[in-house]
Amino acid sequence: MPPDPSAAPLTLFEKVWRTHVVTPETEETPAVLYVDMHLVHEVTSPQAFAELDARGLKVRRPDKTYATLDHSTPTLPPDENGERPYVTAEAKAQVAALERNCAAHGVTLAGWDSADRGIVHVMGPELGLTHPGSLIVCGDSHTATHGAFGALAFGIGTSEVGHVLATQCLLQRKPKTLRVNIINSLQSGVSAKDMALSVIAALGFGGGTGFVIEYAGEAVRALDMEGRMTLCNMTIETGARAGMVAPDQTTIAWLRVRRHAPQGTAFEAKAAEWLNLVSDEGAVFDKEIHLDAATMAPMATWGTTPDMSAPIGAPTPTPRSQADERALTYMRFEPGGQARDHTVDIVFVGSCTNGRISDLRAAAALLRGRKIKEGVRMLVAPGSEAVRREAEAEGLDRIFTEAGAEWRLPGCSMCIAMNGDVVPPGALAVSTSNRNFEGRQGKGARTILASPASAAAAAVAGYLVDPRTLTEAAHV
Amino acid sequence: MSEPFRALTSRTIVLPQESIDTDQIIPARFLTTTSRDGLGAKAFFDWRYDITGAPKPEFALNIVDPTEHRILVAGANFGCGSSREHAPWALADYGFRAVISTSIADIFTSNALKNGLLPIEVDAETHAALLERPGYKITIDLERCELRFANLAPVSFRVEPFARRCLLDGVDTLGWLLDRSAAIAAYEHKRGLGT
Predict the structure, then answer these.
(1) Which CATH topology does B7-170 take?
(2) Nearest residue of A to residue B84 by CA position?
(3) Mind listing the pLDDT tens digit for each residue in A417-447?
(4) Does the residue A301 lie in any domain?
(5) What span, in angstroms and rounded, lies between the C-alpha atoms of B133 and B142?
(6) Are A400 and A417 in contact (CB under 8 A)?
(7) Residue A351's closest CA among A415, A289, A290?
(8) Rounded to whole angstroms, how far apart are CA atoms B32 and A132?
(9) ipTM computed for the complex
(10) I need a surface site. Which of A110, A361, A378, B123 has the fewest CB within 10 A?
(11) Residues A78, A187 share a domain
């Protein structure tokens, strides 16, 4: 008798993949997968809606489509005439296009007047739209964020946005699986962002290409949902399109109070189902790596890809490749250089990586009763209207502004710098965002990626400093 | 759907840097467009133009005639970063029909194939030979999945079979998916998702 294939141990990924197969993969054709939730924003959708309109097609499932405004939106308030300070007329027209497209196709839009509006990957989970075991896509590479709930979530291009709008389906080849096991616990003062940067450094930039990652181990289990989102968010920086964490009681507790989660007894039934979404004992992964959280420290990047990182306080490394040399030249860093030699001009706290309430609390904790260094400009952009309300209710906004930082409206802001929030040419920025590519935050901008606590500490010191030295000083 | 792609003979432009990300291919400040046209002028904008907007005379894309250099040879991990389809739109609009590297990012590959821009992964030895020969003439034969050169042995490559068929025959992917409507409705019914 051949073994029963249904009894073979399965990975979390495999379990989620299987339930979404409309037609299976063959040699000639990829699988057709069904999408449970399609998130949409203004930048990667107009050409897709135009394609539908040109063909006379409707959005197949507006009830499974949810849109927001985040990338091109100004983070400064409207003027006295109610005019928003868009960076260009084109940016304004792009926002208007999404408003028009959503109205025409019956898609819910968290627009300017919505209390739900936020960065797509902050808003989705916070509304409870992100469910374990679901398949979620968005025309945005940081869709991996939603994998924190045990969803299979990945970024797609605009042509595929059109496919999903029109058919709720997507053509996909099955990726390979990679488990990242992280044992032990993070030291106090070391965050999920530091863990994410450590994982990327271990895998290498592009080291995850072709894989879906499952993050496992006691250090991952110990993360709260926001930490798991930060970790999964940066999965794409390894080249892997999706990162997942198996749902557990932490996941259930987060979802229980969310508006778009099932309610009442339906929730309890779902929760029991969700808790089965774990990789079975003995499930085989195509690749596995093991990392130790106890050895992780607050990290910062020194180069122009997110894997070029080192613990804060380590001297700038000696280049090992042409890519390293090019990166150091662009960053104007010398091998062996010390952080205090590099004066920071700008600090940015926000983004889909680190724009959640716990991130703002971490930054505010460092800034409480302190002033940011003269000459440093600090900008804080909450990840959503809900985060903004919560932060203001807690008085975090006042901590930021009293320290000398700017408290902005929610949006992607300076992470992608397409709304007018730009790092000037040559300026050195410490940013809680996800990409330190050349020019990512503005032409000629030099970006250091770090955690919210490390960014706030840099704002106070004027250069990169291990945030634990400031928190310890505060206790003396 | 772009024109079918069967074979192409053209010269290369070489950008040897590793991990050329989509922010280099098309900087984010140009993503406020609602069109997919005209982005070729913005391709590699910050590498092509200095801070005053003047073309950098030494940069490869400013030197050659794009109509005769339709193949981009680039360093490993090409197209990493964001999911923006504006990257292949910009490259295709500039004139490129193919990108050759040792590794090409997943989302970029998927996007490129939908825009008549063929991503080709080759072995390190072939790649090294191509990096050394900017302006080299290559024939890309998609029917046979083979690269042919004047002075080097032919090299075979792999393209995902469905994407290859779409390119060769001009299959409209969205149309193909729309033809699966019955299967999609049956799936929705089975899972009790309503319609």
Answers:
(1) Aconitase; domain 4 (3.20.19)
(2) A157
(3) 999 999 999 999 999 999 999 999 999 999 9
(4) no
(5) 22
(6) no
(7) A415
(8) 33
(9) 0.97
(10) B123
(11) yes
